[in-house]
From TrEMBL, chains A, B:
This is Triphosphoribosyl-dephospho-CoA synthase. InterPro entries: CitG. One of its GO terms (molecular function) is ATP binding. Gene3D superfamilies: Triphosphoribosyl-dephospho-CoA protein. Pfam families: CitG (PF01874). Transmembrane segments: none annotated.
Length: 290, 290
């Protein structure tokens, strides 16, 4: 047998992890996404190339998410560790938190809302521990924990790890407890409703995929306040940002104008980007072509 | 043993294949690169997202290039097959032809000019066959073969495959025979001299990596005519394009002006981009941070 005949025949099909990486790349390339780094916009210390390297760095962790012998939290922690091998800091922490359970659902189960719920239901205390360890790799904007989880504060990860072990809190329960204030927690709570809705909108759209992605990004921000804005500023600012996005949809404001006003106020709709990354992954897996 | 303890510790280090993929992503993101698709420019049917998907698609083939049990030509052919899983057509055929031997040199040998020469020296007739098969996946701009290889014309791949088998022409010999007219052939002939020089320039530069890459791209085009321009147009046009790049370096023309004039004449310095991708890979492996 020649060496060549042992070559894999599968090189033309993306693995779930590769599709998730491509989703991260398409997300950051979509433009305009006012307030976020995108193909046409950098922040001063957080630039486009950091997101490219972050997506590549996350690949090994995303591949681990597809392996049933690796804990979901450990896959997430490794994806974050790899993402952090660039100098920009936190590029895709939230996007990976959305993507990791979806990659597992695709690889071992079904990439449906029920399939995603099943992945969340199977999370363990070890996944919670690994989740807290992921915060070691990068600075992430976080709020106070909800009152019922006051002892699970990522700002004191050692105490939080002890608390989730003592109280046997799995990763699903940990994130779902924050669903009222954190849009990613809400996805974990309700089977990724918005993520799957974004995927439907992406597939129903027309034209180049990056144009569709930018349009869906705006819809997503207009539909519900971005919870990263609420954490970094306050609920009123998040509400205001969504109203500005709605004004663009209604033709009452220009994208350039809201980009300028978001930049001026350092408004970064990061959770909207995280959900778009998840939606792009689902859409790619369901046949969206690039 | 818990599932978690089996997790790999290596997620924070890029594999050679991942670094090559990142090099492709950084190459297309660098802007301005007049005449080429880049972060700020699309062509009408060949857009930025096609290069993102092309880079991701190439990963499995690039990973095969790191495996000594896979023929180098087969790894290249699989990389091209994966690259072609997007709707833009040929995005990175030449870049992969530069990268595949460098990935092998890094993984099994040394990423030096001697190491690259050794990889080329070890190529086989089977590698030539796989190289011709790669043209099945995508339309590539090619010229007549050189007279000594008139029977090895990619435009009749079956006949070319028969010819390389009968005449026992390995991939190195095939590409080196075209070194006078094709800059990638020249790299194969002389141990990737320009690629390693590009890597040195990238590492010696300052500022964001994409800005360095765009500056080195311009230097590379100014230094020698782009052989893709020569193939798609003629030697005079390629010479003219390099003189325009030199004029920008000397402050006698603006990047915007040459971008407009290249676009108007459909001038696409693609080989310059291919060499930059190779140089970015070498620079990343030698410590260039993103």
């Amino acid at each position: 047998m020649s060496p060549d005949s042992r070559a894999e025949p599968s090189a033309t099909e993306r693995t779930p992890a590769q599709a998730a990486m491509l989703a991260l790349l398409l997300e950051v390339a979509a433009t305009p996404t006012p307030g976020n780094v995108d193909r046409a916009h950098d922040h001063s210390d957080l630039r486009f190339e950091h997101f490219l390297a972050g997506a590549v760095g996350a690949l090994d962790g995303l591949s681990m998410a597809a392996r049933p012998d690796v804990g979901l939290g450990r896959a997430f922690e490794r994806a974050v560790a790899g993402m952090a091998t660039q100098r920009g800091g936190n590029t895709q922490f939230g996007g990976l938190l959305v993507l990791v359970p979806l990659v597992r659902a695709q690889a071992h189960g079904a990439l449906t809302r029920d399939g995603a719920r099943a992945v969340v239901d199977r999370t363990t205390v070890a996944d919670s521990v690994a989740f807290f360890e992921a915060f070691d790799h990068v600075d992430v904007a976080v709020d106070e924990p909800p009152p019922a989880l006051a002892d699970c504060d990522v700002r004191d990860a050692d105490a939080a790890i002890q608390a989730v072990r003592e109280r046997e809190i799995d990763l699903g329960a940990l994130l779902v407890a924050d669903a009222a204030r954190n849009a990613i927690g809400r996805e974990y709570a309700d089977g990724f409703e918005r993520t799957f809705a974004i995927a439907r909108r992406l597939r129903a759209g027309e034209g180049p995929v990056l144009d569709r992605a930018a349009a869906v990004w705006l819809d997503t921000l207009a539909d519900q306040p971005d919870t990263l804005i609420a954490i970094q500023h306050d609920a009123e600012t998040a509400q205001w940002a969504s109203e500005r996005a709605q004004a663009v949809r209604e033709g009452k404001a220009s994208l350039d104008a809201i980009t300028a006003s978001f930049q001026e106020r350092s408004i970064n709709p990061g959770t909207t980007a995280d959900l778009l990354a998840g939606g792009l992954f689902v859409a790619l897996q369901r046949g969206l072509t690039v």
